Amino acid sequence: MDTVIEVKDLSKHFHGPKSTKAQKLSLNKQKSYKQKAIKGNVIRAVDNVSFHVEKGEIFGLLGPNGAGKTTTIRMLTGVLEPTAGKIAILGRDFLKNKIMIQQLIGNVPEMANAYLDLTGLQNLELMGELYGVKKTERSQRAEYLLKKFEIFDNRNLKAKKYSKGMKQRLLLCMALMSKPKVLFLDEPTSGLDVQSSIIIKNLIREYNKTGMTIVLTTHNMDVANELCDRIGIINKGKLVGLDTPENMLRLKREYLALDVCFENKDINNKEMSNLPYVKKISKIGKNYRIIVSSLNDGLRDIVDYAKSNDLKIDKINTYEPHLQDVFLQIINEGGV
Ligand SMILES: Nc1ncnc2c1ncn2[C@@H]1O[C@H](COP(=O)(O)OP(=O)(O)OP(=O)(O)O)[C@@H](O)[C@H]1O
Ligand SMILES: [Mg+2]
Predict the structure, then answer these.
(1) Which of 49, 133, 149, 230 is the most buried (most CB within 10 A)?
(2) Confidence bin at 24 (pLDDT 50/70/90)
(3) Residue of the nearest CA to atom 4 in ligand 1?
(4) 3-12+47-250 classified as CATH 3.40.50.300
(5) Residue 51 alpha carbon to ligand 2 centre in Å
(6) How does residue 36 score in pLDDT terms, banded at 50, 70 and 90?
(7) pTM attached to this predicted model
(8) Atom 2, ligand 1: which residue's CA is nearest?
(9) Ligand 2 center to residue 155 CA distance, Å?
(10) Alpha helices in 228-294 (DSSP H)
(11) What is the Cα–Cα distance from 115 to 169, expressed in whole angstroms?
(12) Nearest to 6 by CA among 123, 69, 78, 91
């Protein structure tokens, strides 16, 4: 497989709010200002991150608000200069071949906007022109994309009149006008209704099937799980997990759990926690989530315990781990 993106020891530091003018002036007098600023008052938005993305992959950067996802994407698309580290895209050093590589990538940034006084169609035509697509091909491609993204009927409406979902679809069309080899999407479905979200997810899959490599960010586990071949979990600027969603779930052995509802009374948590195959108990609504080391043995323990304590089991279900559990564990404990 070809590696399309190679990120090595990538960092981005911002100066924090305490870097006041007075502080800067006083530090400016010293030659080592830059070093001192970085040592002192610094936000490590991205901190020594390394990963690669293979051709044809959908790679997701998943993390909570402020984790460093947008900052990473901004560096990968040339909007921000890294503080340190290397980026190679399509086999070339990005920083040395920025303009050339930017012609080969598509980008839908987090806070992107179309030209609001232009219609949807005009926005696409303009994009095509900027990327040097021939006039006849430009119109054909624009029409094709507008139909595909279900905004063709609104093609002559100014972008300022588009709803959020329509605007996001238009932005995707704009990014696709140049037929990019790699597409970067920062929170592609954030804040969208179900219908727009489904259209976008389906089309991300469809374009990926044509061989397009896609890097997206999301703080939504379901989006990551549904779309991504591999996920990098980022928290406080650091990459704290990197694997396929399936492997991440497999690693979550701890989440062999049973959800049990007792009919007649509450249980004695402490006694039950002491059963041989029971690891942890927590109450979720009326149910108890009982983490066990083996489903069979744990179930037997619980049924035996219920019998000998005159407890009636109303319902019992095995609990399948969700990516959310993995995500929370990684975020809270700093690793799988
Ligand atoms: N231009 C900037 N100047 C100073 N700090 C910044 C700047 N851009 C981002 N940061 C800080 O860097 C950190 C990472 O921000 P970033 O926008 O990359 O997070 P994110 O993972 O995209 O979050 P979200 O899910 O909210 O979009 C945050 O602490 C943020 O405040
Ligand atoms: Mg962001």
Answers:
(1) 49
(2) low
(3) 14
(4) yes
(5) 19
(6) very low
(7) 0.81
(8) 14
(9) 29
(10) 245-251, 269-273
(11) 14
(12) 91
Partners of 62 in beta bridges:
218, 233
Residue 186's nearest CA partner among 267, 105, 289 is 105
Nearest Cα to Cα of residue 72 among 227, 244, 215: 215
Three-point CA angle 238, 6, 90, nearest 5°: 145
CA angle, 264 then 265 then 269, to 5°: 140
Nearest CA owner, ligand 1 atom 1: 14
Strands 213-218 vs 182-186: parallel, antiparallel or unpaired: parallel
Which residue has a Cα nearest atom 26 of ligand 1? 65
Helix axes of 164-176 and 194-209: crossing angle, nearest 10 degrees:
10
Q: What angle do CA 209, 213, 219 make, to 5 degrees?
A: 100
Report domain extents, the chain. 3-12+47-250, 253-320
58 CA distance to ligand 1 centroid (A)?
23
Question: Could you tell me if 263 and 313 are in contact, meaning their C-beta atoms sit under 8 angstroms apart?
Answer: yes
Query: Largest Cα–Cα distance in the chain?
Result: 80
Cβ pair 150, 103 in contact under 8 A: no
With a CB cutoff of 8 Å and minimum separation 6, the contacts of 121 are: 142, 146, 155, 156
- Total residue count of the chain as it appears in this document: 336
Residue entry with tokens 């779309």? 227
Question: Which residues contact ligand 1 via a Cβ below 6 A?
Answer: 14, 43, 45, 63, 65-71, 110, 219
Q: Could you read off the pLDDT of 81-92 as tens digits, one per residue?
A: 999 999 999 999
Domain 253-320 listed as CATH 3.30.70.980: yes
Phi, psi of 214 (to 5 degrees): -130, 130
Please determine whether the domains at 3-12+47-250 and 253-320 fall in the same fold group of CATH: no
Q: What is the pLDDT of residue 179?
A: 93
Q: How many CA atoms lie within 13 A of 103 on its CB side?
A: 8
